[in-house]
Amino acid sequence: MNEGYHAKSIELSLLELKVDAVNGLPAAEAQKRLAQNGANRLQSARSKPLGLKILEQFRDFLVIILIIAAIISIAAGDGLKDAIIIFCILIINMVIGLVQENKADNALKELKNMSSPKAKVKRDGRIGQIGSEDVVVGDIILLDAGDFIPADVRLIESSSLRIDEAALTGESVSVEKDADVVLKNDVSLGDKINLASMGTVVTYGRGMGVVTAAGMDTEIGKIAALINETGEAATPLQGKLNSMAKTLGIVCVATCALVFGIGFLYNQLNLGDPRDIIEMLMVSVSLAVAAVPEGVAIVATVILAVGVQRMVKRNVIVKKLRAVETLGSTTVICSDKTGTLTQNKMTVVKVYDAVNVFDVTGTGYGAAGEVVTNGRPLTQNIPLMAAIGVLCNDAVYDRETAKIIGDPTEAAMLVFGAKLKLDKDKLNAKVKRIGEKPFDSERKLMSTRNIKDGKTVMNVKGAPDAVLARSDKVFLDGEITPMTENLRARLSEQNERFAAQALRVLAFAYKEMDNETDETEDGLTYVGQMCMIDPPRDEVKASVEQCREAGINIKMITGDHKTTAVVIAQTLGIAGEDGEALDGNDLDQLSDEQLREKVKTVNVFARVSPEHKVRIVAALKENNNIVAMTGDGVNDAPSLKKADIGIAMGITGTDVSKEAADMILTDDNFVSIAGAVEQGRTIYGNIRKVTGYLLSCNIGEILIIFLAIVFGLPVPLLATQLLFVNLLTDALPAFALGMERKERGVMKRRPRDPQEPLINKGMKGSVAFRAAFVCAGSLGAFLYGLHHHDYATAVSMCFFTLVASELLVSYPSRTEEVMGFSWEIFKNKFLNISMALSFAVLVAVMYIPVCNQLFTTVPLSLPQFGVSMALVLVPVFGSELSKRIFSIR
Description:
Elements: H1 10-16, H2 27-37, H3 50-57, H4 61-76, H5 80-114, E1 118-123, E2 126-131, E3 140-144, E4 152-164, H6 166-169, E5 175-176, E6 195-196, E7 201-213, H7 219-222, H8 224-227, H9 236-270, H10 274-291, H11 296-313, E8 316-318, H12 322-327, E9 332-335, E10 347-352, E11 357-359, E12 363-365, E13 371-373, E14 376-377, H13 381-391, E15 396-398, E16 403-405, H14 408-419, H15 424-430, E17 432-437, E18 445-452, E19 455-462, H16 464-469, E20 471-476, E21 479-482, H17 485-500, E22 504-513, E23 524-533, H18 540-549, E24 553-557, H19 562-572, E25 582-583, H20 584-589, H21 592-598, E26 604-606, H22 610-622, E27 627-631, H23 637-642, E28 645-649, H24 655-660, E29 663-665, H25 670-710, H26 719-730, H27 732-738, H28 761-788, H29 791-808, H30 829-847, H31 849-855, H32 862-885
Parallel strand pairs: 9-24, 9-27, 20-23, 24-26, 25-26, 27-28, 28-29
Antiparallel strand pairs: 1-2, 1-3, 3-7, 4-5, 4-6, 4-7, 8-29, 10-11, 10-23, 12-13, 13-14, 15-16, 17-18, 18-19, 19-22, 20-21, 22-23
Helix pairs in contact: 4-5, 4-10, 5-11, 5-26, 9-10, 9-11, 9-25, 10-25, 10-26, 11-25, 13-14, 17-19, 21-22, 25-27, 25-28, 26-29, 27-30, 28-29, 28-32, 29-30, 29-32, 30-31
């Protein structure tokens, strides 16, 4: 941080940074500073230079052997043409590899940008949210519990402010901050209690500060170890694919070595031309290069990245690719109620003045200017309650966007206050706030201390049971009476009746104080209750049912009252008619073993604390469930990390919860979770399809060469042809299969076992079966050509049949279900375009004279073409037949 700001007063700091704390920077000045100093972000590690990326494409051992073989072929005499073609194909492969790698890298970078934190700033006198990268030196930043500090800041206001600085200092205990203190120059970083540093987290209270340094000029920017970001670690699926590719690679290389050995033996026994040995070496190495499925992991990465970007369109940002894999295995979704299952549009609908219940949906003014609701005059309790709700409130009305920034419940209070002509800015100016005690889940209260008519008054709002427990008096239409046990019971009973109607209830109280620094929240005067409703989202019920059909159980975990939670849960089909539910007190009475049994049947958990959430998730996981958990608060971070998939709220979620999560919902809607599960299953299914398609084709190629050599036949495919097959079928069709949309019934299947290998027993049989049919069709074409024509024609028929069949087999590979013939098979436009382009290239290779010479092919006559096309259908038939024989799910 700029040296010395901790030793300067608030006034001097603001003066040096040329900013007014009341209005903040003018927007034009902020843009000017941003243009001068650049974005507020840390420099990431340098990307690999293009030259190194190109060299890495050629580092494969088999490719090196192939290049050496091509050079030997040139040295031996007339292998120049084949060598040139081999080099050209390798270069094309290199270009495709670079494009794939860049596409995956760019997709991941975009995802990182999407999930970057926001900052609340004051500019031109208005408070708004901007991306943290747009924060500039001199910006006035507002800080609340759960916020990440977007830059280095000199605090100018602090109220019970605590900041977790573990990321910077390693200190595990949150540091209490004090904006008013001025320190000495030689104070260590951890003791600068009037500063806040970029990358640290507000854990409690609120504050305001002025940015003194941004980007690489911050304290965290100076730490070299934190500048360079590590690359995205391979996901478990990518690890499985790489491992599979290595294992199959060894098998393929061994088989190709055997092919070369057999060919070499035949050559020696027949005393053939030494160049035949070189040709055999090139064919064997080319076969290995073509057959080893080293590209499967790359294709999978691209499919994951593209699928994740599709999720963005469905309001889901996936921060970690491994979450996509886990989505397909999810068996339980633990969802918060407010905003996720409901609309998050809180509206005050009823108020209770300790005697009467008023429906305030029609609140307005009578002929004499008195406040009325549906024509009925309100008691004095109601305006007083509304005033407390406005004063004890951190929501802010943004006049520029005409939106309220802040908690929805507090926003509803501001709207209700506005109906009674209580403007927050005017009321705060008249009744100045001098202190506050923020809400927390243990006290279940928020209180502010205000100066009203020269007296200090504490205004309190919170859960009715918490407020009631701390009240010893009641305000009744202008008169204050003692709180009796009968009255206390009546107020509690009314709260229960409201909760039974699925209303969110807050109670309001106040007390006049002699000591303005007293923070004790007792001896309160109870004023009344305010009831709000957040109705269920219309579309959620269908999604809950969809999840149930998919074998996914939905659990509602909420801080709301048990009765309220049950009503909403029953409306959405989460809870049954019996309305079984557990609240925090119930959970405290259960041992871990008892809880493991309860979570099997109970779907509603109310009045829970963050610790309860962690216990619930742990119990579900111990029952062998794969758990997705939603959260939005600072204290939700432990349960988000404990779950297999942590899901943060994009609108209401704190930066802490977003950082801890694997996914972020940009619309806070449960439907988006169900959509993400569906997309996750689709992505995993597409990777399986591509893997099965490539393996069956590659193994089929090995079988063609191996069987031909074993039975003493001439080599049916040449080195350049094998590499061409690999280039044509591994590129466009494979990626087109990865673009498949969801299959019918994908959300009617049971969740996938996470321990199940990608290539399970059924898939192994299916791949072998399909490979045999690929071999049979192509080898049949070769034998037909040898028997009825010459070697050149036989090779050409085998080549054409192999390429055409591998291309067409991609259509039945689109689905794991038996397709038969229908126009449905042409619904993948990417695959259709790939087929058109690939067949155009194949026809050119077969019928253009220059291509004939390059790839050693001859044009096929109409009868030869007809035989080849008939044999092309053999692998297609085999692919469909395999679905009837083998179950790969």
